[in-house]
């Protein structure tokens, strides 16, 4: 008898004659620039003859089927031996269809050729064993920030690739798929290419893609977002109080809401939509809340479970910030689940049927002493048996059959609920029943470079036991034992460098002329190049003060290259509910999962010889410090340096990633690093990636984590941007870790006149509020302000208790966009009634499409017609109608009457006026107004700006020219104001303004806001070009490069304007 079997993890070709068996094992994937290895085993037979084979690896052209590659290797396998056969695959393998052809002489036969097999190989055109990982310093970037990245290029063993062996290019594309930066044929240092790109202050917003390429093939990549964002500070967690079951007909959920430092938040939780409720529902949450959600109807179960979808929002009652979340809650039919040994069960009429069941809870913990009912059904008979699980959750089910027994299906019931099912197939002989099994298990922990012990247990006594070692999609080892008719056998293997981080051991034996197998995964949570990062000094529960120094102990292999990175843990929320390609860091799990070898156990020995075979790797997609403390120049002392009588220095470094630097482990294997932490009050994690030419890749398994907090600190809830002139409430939270209640003084400073404090004199440079702070708690505080400048606005806040003994100060920058201006519109109508019937007017409220999405203010006035001979009667009524709103007034000949509506919804675009008079004449005038931002007006000035270099790196020269765009001849602008707002860190002086044209002389020059705003006034600007230049000098560098604003506006007619955003840097 001749039998061919194939394995979906590896390829098994088994040739069986009486007393002779050859087993061939090999991968079904061929890759560029790697060895292709398979094993020929001449062990299973009873003869002592040699096996002679010719193995041919050939490739055929896809079109004409001509041979494009052919390599033949003779194989001579002696009895009781394994022979490993290796083909060296070049990196320029031609494209085509590849196969292995095996032919030769079967042992113990006289035929010259009685073995011939063809095995198709899968050849990914560009796929080799290169492993590429990309690391970013952030997943989301603000325009003007610097994106830093590392590209790790490694071989199959995770060792660094060299530049001469790999030709790698890096490309960055914007959301419009336009290439914005490219690095071609990069040089690799220790297998790493590291670089950065400064995003322009005026950038296209959206998802950008960084790609690592080789010969136009994408090796790997990452996606990052460019947007003006506010890093999440709301941690919303929702989970069931108990296992959700269908019989409950409801969900009992726990909602926990905290900020990023773990303090509870208060606000409204709204379930917007769900498949179990008819309408949205809202609950008030004070840190934690239990909510009960009854189902609107019976859930439809699919495979013993259903999924409840929930879309929720939580709105913080103090800051009005909202976080949205979508989750799915599994609802089960039963709290138990059952795993059947095999879904296709074999039985032979007349022989006992036996199978094993595993009973667990839904969390996969073994369920002990659980009684279930097992039901087998046939066309005519139903057999029921109650079975109880043992302490391990195991049930052995047995039933007798006779020659006429016919069984079709198999079900397991927990009460009335079916929780498992299977199907039967009938086999011709008792020797083919599936009561034969073999099991391999680990007896020791898996550790690198240590012996691991394995135990094999078989249902029958074994005469031969073979094992194969699979690692990185290839056969790397094989062996065999003769257990001498025992059903238990143990052996040992070395967990060598070749087997890490994940590998698989497959064991094979023959029982009653049937081949049976099992496998076990060898997984080690480390690589051959271990790396550890610890914070050396003891850090208490209160963490580290923002801005303090910490000492890191970095342990690794001597000479290993280490790339460090530290991230604000709030960045992790930026990656929620997205694929790994959006995840900015490289985690240990990303690399570890790459070496998983998933397969379907039921397809290991498929009955079809045409089954798709092969090992396929699962590739999971997924330094210099970021400038945070400002790099001040040589022009004077540091801004805001503490002086006598002032609070401590401002916290200014709020970067969300840092410690982006590289180092080499010294011969001691230990590197001590002292570094200052940023100023944010948050939680951090520090990670590292190590590269060694001999031992390959290493990643920190457990990141070093710590928190930066103060005894008293301010947490801001600032928006990324506001509008000039807009009255806005700026929210903050003051946290106290003191054990007593204190009164705190919170002061917002305005030394440069950049804001107005509402309800305070315009000249005030600060506003203070006194708040009570409970022990170990927080209290909100807010300031009502108006921004007075364009561009960057500096927010300064100080809080102190005990007369300033304990205090906190911080300074942050937000963007101020151009203001809205009020647009007035009006319509006038005459009414003339000689009959008692009503007269109606429909009035469209015209607004610009880009008008601010707010309400409209309306004023309606009725005037008597003084020239009319008709007199208004006292019974004359006028009514205004829109969107269900009605308002009426009575009018007569003596009094002017009006209706004022301060707020009409923005979606209302028509109003109706009805006049009910018997005899009258009059005038109805309606005025309405809406708000429109300056940038949405049609430009009425031409603006030209150029940036010129100077002899000093500290100075820039800006030329600005403008002219009026008239709609009529000889039209011009009177009292024109030109305003230039430059970023913080730069300054202008009035004596550095130079008139370049004299036709329209400058009437006034004013420097505001600490030298960051220049206002130039003209008495007249026509269609002639008017120009001036200004010299801008740099005081210090800022980490984020933002644009400048230039605005030209007619003072008396503000709708005549032009606004331009300019890339200043």
TrEMBL record:
Keyword annotations of the record: Disulfide bond, Signal, Thioester bond
Pfam family, one: A2M_recep
Superkingdom assignment: Eukaryota
Domain (Alpha-2-macroglobulin) ranges: 657-748
Limits of the Alpha-2-macroglobulin bait region domain: 438-574
GO CC annotation: extracellular region
MF annotations from Gene Ontology: endopeptidase inhibitor activity
Domain Alpha-macroglobulin receptor-binding stretches: 973-1062
Name the UniProt record assigns to this protein: Alpha-2-macroglobulin bait region domain-containing protein
Organism of provenance: Anopheles albimanus
Upper classification of the organism: Eukaryota, Metazoa, Ecdysozoa, Arthropoda, Hexapoda
């Amino acid at each position: 008898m001749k039998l061919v079997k194939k394995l979906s993890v590896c390829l098994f070709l088994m040739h069986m004659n009486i007393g002779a068996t050859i087993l061939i094992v090999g991968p079904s994937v061929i890759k560029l620039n790697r060895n292709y290895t398979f094993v020929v085993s001449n062990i299973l037979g009873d003869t002592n003859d040699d096996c002679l084979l010719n193995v041919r690896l050939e490739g055929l052209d896809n079109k004409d089927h001509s041979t494009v590659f052919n390599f033949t290797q003779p194989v001579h396998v002696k009895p009781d031996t394994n022979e490993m056969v290796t083909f060296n695959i070049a990196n320029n393998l031609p494209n085509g269809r590849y196969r292995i052809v095996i032919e030769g002489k079967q042992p113990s036969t006289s035929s010259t050729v009685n073995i011939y097999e063809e095995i198709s190989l899968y050849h990914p055109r560009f796929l080799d064993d290169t492993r590429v990982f990309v690391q970013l310093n952030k997943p989301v970037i603000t325009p003007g920030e610097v994106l830093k990245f590392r590209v790790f290029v490694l071989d199959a063993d995770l060792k660094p690739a060299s530049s001469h062996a790999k030709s790698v290019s890096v490309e960055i594309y914007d959301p419009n798929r336009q290439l914005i930066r490219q690095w071609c044929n990069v040089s690799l240092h220790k297998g790493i290419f590291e670089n950065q790109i400064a995003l322009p202050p005026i950038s296209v917003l959206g998802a950008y893609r960084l790609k690592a390429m080789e010969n136009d093939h994408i090796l790997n990549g990452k996606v990052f977002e460019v947007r003006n964002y506010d890093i999440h500070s709301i941690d919303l967690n929702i989970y069931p109080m108990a296992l959700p079951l269908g019989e409950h007909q409801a969900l009992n959920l726990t909602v926990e809401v905290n900020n990023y430092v773990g303090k509870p938040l208060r606000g409204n939780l709204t379930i917007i939509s769900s498949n179990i409720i008819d309408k949205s529902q809202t609950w008030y949450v004070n840190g934690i809340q239990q909510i009960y959600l009854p189902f609107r109807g019976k859930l439809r179960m699919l495979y013993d479970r259903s999924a409840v979808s929930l879309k929720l929002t939580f709105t913080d009652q103090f800051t009005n910030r909202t976080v949205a979340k979508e989750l799915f809650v599994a609802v089960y039919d039963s709290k138990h689940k059952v795993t059947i040994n095999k879904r296709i069960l074999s039985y032979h009429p007349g022989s006992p049927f036996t199978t094993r069941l595993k009973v667990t809870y839904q969390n996969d913990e073994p369920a002990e002493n659980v009684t279930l009912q097992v039901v087998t059904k046939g066309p005519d008979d139903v057999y029921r048996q109650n079975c109880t699980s043992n302490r391990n959750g195991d049930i052995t089910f047995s039933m007798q059959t006779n020659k006429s027994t016919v069984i079709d299906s198999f079900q397991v019931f927990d009460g009335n609920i079916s929780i498992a099912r299977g199907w039967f197939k009938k086999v011709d002989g008792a020797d083919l029943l599936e009561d034969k099994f073999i099991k391999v298990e680990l007896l020791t922990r898996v550790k690198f470079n240590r012996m691991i012990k394995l135990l094999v247990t078989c249902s029958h006594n074994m005469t031969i036991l073979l094992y194969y070692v699979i690692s990185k999609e290839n056969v790397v080892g094989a062996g065999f034992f003769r257990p001498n008719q025992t059903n238990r056998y143990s052996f040992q293997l070395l967990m060598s460098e070749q087997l890490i981080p994940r590998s698989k051991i497959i064991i094979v034996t023959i029982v009653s002329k049937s081949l049976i197998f099992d496998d076990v995964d060898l997984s080690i949570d480390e690589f051959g190049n271990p790396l550890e990062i610890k914070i050396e000094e003891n850090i208490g529960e209160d963490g580290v003060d923002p801005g303090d120094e910490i000492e890191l102990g970095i342990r690794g292999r001597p000479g290993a290259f280490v790339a460090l990175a530290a991230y604000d843990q709030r960045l992790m929320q930026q990656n929620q509910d997205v694929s790994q390609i959006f995840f900015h860091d490289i985690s240990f799990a990303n690399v570890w999962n790459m070496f998983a070898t998933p397969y379907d156990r039921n397809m290991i020995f498929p009955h079809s010889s045409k089954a798709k075979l092969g090992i396929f790797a699962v590739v999971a997609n997924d330094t210099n410090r970021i400038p945070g403390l400002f790099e001040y120049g040589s022009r004077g002392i540091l801004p805001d340096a503490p002086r006598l009588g002032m609070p401590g220095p401002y916290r200014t470094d709020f970067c969300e990633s840092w410690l982006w630097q590289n180092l080499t482990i010294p011969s001691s294997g230990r590197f001590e690093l002292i570094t200052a932490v940023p100023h944010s009050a948050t939680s951090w994690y520090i990670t590292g990636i190590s590269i060694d030419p001999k031992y390959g890749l290493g990643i920190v398994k457990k990141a070093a984590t710590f928190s930066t907090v103060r005894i008293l600190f301010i947490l801001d809830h600032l928006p990324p941007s506001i509008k000039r002139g807009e009255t806005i409430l700026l929210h903050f939270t003051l946290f106290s870790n003191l054990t007593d209640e204190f009164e705190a003084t919170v002061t917002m400073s305005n030394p440069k006149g950049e804001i107005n404090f509402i309800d305070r004199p315009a000249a005030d440079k600060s506003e203070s509020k006194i708040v009570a702070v409970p022990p170990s708690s927080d209290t909100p505080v807010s300031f009502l302000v108006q921004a007075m400048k364009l561009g960057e606005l500096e927010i300064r806040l100080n809080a102190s208790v005990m007369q300033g003994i304990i205090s906190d100060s911080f300074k942050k920058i937000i963007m101020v966009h151009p203001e809205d201006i009020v647009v007035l519109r009006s319509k006038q109508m005459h009414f003339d009634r000689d009959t008692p019937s009503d007269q109606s007017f429909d009035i469209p409220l015209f607004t610009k499409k880009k008008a601010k999405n707010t309400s409209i203010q309306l004023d309606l006035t009725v005037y008597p017609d003084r020239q009319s001979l008709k007199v208004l009667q006292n019974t004359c009524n006028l009514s205004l109608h829109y969107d269900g709103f009605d308002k009426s007034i009575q009018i007569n000949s003596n009094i002017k009457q009006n209706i004022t509506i301060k707020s009409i919804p923005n979606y209302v675009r028509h109003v109706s006026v009805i006049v009910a008079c018997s005899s009258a004449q009059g005038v109805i005038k309606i005025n309405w107004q809406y708000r429109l931002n300056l940038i949405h007006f049609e430009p009425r000035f031409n603006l030209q700006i150029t940036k010129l270099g100077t002899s000093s790196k500290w100075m820039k020269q800006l030329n600005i020219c403008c002219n009026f765009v008239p709609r009529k001849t000889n039209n011009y602008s009177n009292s024109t104001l030109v305003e230039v707002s430059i970023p913080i860190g730069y300054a202008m002086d009035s004596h550095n303004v130079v008139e370049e044209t004299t036709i329209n002389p400058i009437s006034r020059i004013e420097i505001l806001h600490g030298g960051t705003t220049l206002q130039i006034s003209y008495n007249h600007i026509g269609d002639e070009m008017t120009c001036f230049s200004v010299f801008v000098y740099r005081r210090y560098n800022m980490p984020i490069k933002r644009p400048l604003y230039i605005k030209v506006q007619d003072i008396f007619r503000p709708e005549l304007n032009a606004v331009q955003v300019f890339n200043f840097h």
